[in-house]
Amino acid sequence: MDTEEGNVLSGILMAAGGTDLDSQQCISRGAEIKKLGWRIGLCADHADAALARLAQLQLEQWESPAGRAYRTTLALQAASLRRGRDALREAAAATLRHARNVALDPQSGY
Asked: Taking 50 as the threshold, does the pLDDT of residue 68 lie above it?
């Protein structure tokens, strides 16, 4: 944990009314959930990179029926990957929101 994050977490502890064990556990769980949210976001970034590579492959000009079928298959895979990427972005945002709630509300039930 870096110094800035430690200061923020200390401030949250003080705002929560002290440094009791429950508050410390909430802060720790909140930090772990935050890391998970970042990792989910990183997975979405990897999906973006894969989409860029698929787009490059689709630009190749193969005029044969097999080439057209290949590009069609790539387009279907890209559409599926975009849906997965979008779901990952939504999951990352929800996870990061949950991390903030856990860190701020010791009664949230984790």
From this structure: yes
